[in-house]
Amino acid sequence: MRVTTKIAIVVRDDLAAWQRLNVTAFLAGAVAAGHPDLIGEPYENASGDRYLPMFRQPVLVYAGTGEDLARVHARALAREVSMAVYIEDMFKTGNDVDNRATVRAVAAEEMPLVGLGLYGPKNPLDKMLKGLALHP
């Protein structure tokens, strides 16, 4: 089956390892919540144990500088791509209400981005992500 869409997570390359993983998890969850049709069927092993369903397609994780994230963010906004954001101040909160308030308090061009979750047609996303390397 040929996949014509792409799920991409972009994390800032200067974050601590735990921060990169935390941001990736939150953003992947946001893409899943925003697009439940991306989720496949539950898994089951030969013993009959059931497991949660996962994405039906790969999730590619990229790393980039703050400037890279700002560029991808601006391109995604201009093209109205489905996107989730994670900003620095979200590391200081402990709940969704405060997370949303931190994002609401900052204008788009001033967001201290540490991560983006993107979903959309593969070709436009590839153009937006051009020059970024996959996370090592």
UniProtKB/TrEMBL annotation:
> Which InterPro entries has this protein been placed in?
DUF2000 (IPR018988), Pep_tRNA_hydro_II_dom_sf (IPR023476)
Q: Which Gene3D superfamilies does the entry link to?
A: Bit1 (3.40.1490.10)
Protein name stated in the entry: DUF2000 domain-containing protein
The organism named in the record is Actinomadura rubrobrunea
